[in-house]
Specification:
By secondary structure, this protein is of the alpha+beta class. It has one helix and seven strands; from the N terminus they run αβββββββ. The longest helix is centred in the N-terminal third of the chain and has 28 residues, at about 1-30.
Length: about 160
C-alpha cells in the first residue's frame, strides 16, 4: 500500500510540473514584446495623404538631370516612399545618378537625409522615375541638396 501512495505522489508531481510548463510556455509564445517608446505603430484605417511638390533647384546642378516632380507617399506613421520624376537633359549618359535629398518636417527641420540612386543609367533625353524608402515621423517636404552622376565609378562594370 505504501508503494501505491508513493507512485500516486510522483504521478501527481509530474502532472503538476507539466501543467505549469504548459501554462508558462503558452503565455510566453503568444505575446510579442511591446514596441520601444516613440516607435508605436498606429493601426489607423485613415488613409495617409500623398504629398506632391514642384521642385526648385537651389543648388548648382551641372549634370543635366532635371527633377520634374517629387511625391511623398506615407506608409504608416514611421515613414514612407519618396518618388522623383527625372529627365536627362544633357547630351551625355548619366551612369550613376544619385539625388541627395533632405526630408523635412512642417517646421523645415531635417528628419532624415537620403541618397536616392537610379537603378540603371539614364540616356540623354530619357525620363525615369526613381524611388526610395525613408524612415522618419512627420515628413511633409523634400529638399534636394545635390544631384550627381559620379556614382557610376563605384558600380562594377557588369552590373550597370
Amino acid at each position: 500500500m505504501f508503494f501505491a501512495i508513493k507512485n500516486k505522489y510522483k504521478l501527481f508531481s509530474f502532472y503538476s510540473f507539466l501543467l505549469i510548463v504548459v501554462v508558462i510556455l503558452s503565455g510566453c509564445l503568444n505575446t510579442e514584446p511591446p514596441p520601444l517608446p516613440g516607435q508605436q505603430i498606429e493601426e489607423s484605417t485613415e488613409k495617409k495623404e500623398v504629398i506632391s511638390q514642384n521642385t526648385t533647384n537651389e543648388f548648382e546642378n551641372d549634370t543635366g538631370i532635371i527633377v520634374n516632380d517629387i511625391t511623398i507617399k506615407p506608409k504608416g506613421t514611421l515613414g514612407g516612399d519618396v518618388f522623383f520624376q527625372v529627365v536627362n537633359d544633357s547630351d551625355e549618359e548619366c551612369g550613376g545618378l544619385v539625388v541627395q535629398v533632405d526630408m523635412l518636417s512642417e517646421t523645415n527641420d531635417v528628419i532624415v537625409t537620403l541618397g536616392v540612386q537610379a537603378p540603371k543609367a539614364i540616356k540623354p533625353g530619357q525620363e525615369m522615375e526613381i524611388k526610395d524608402l525613408f524612415i522618419g515621423k512627420g515628413v511633409v517636404k523634400a529638399n534636394i541638396t545635390s544631384i550627381t552622376c559620379d556614382f557610376a565609378r563605384f558600380i562594377p562594370e557588369g552590373t550597370r
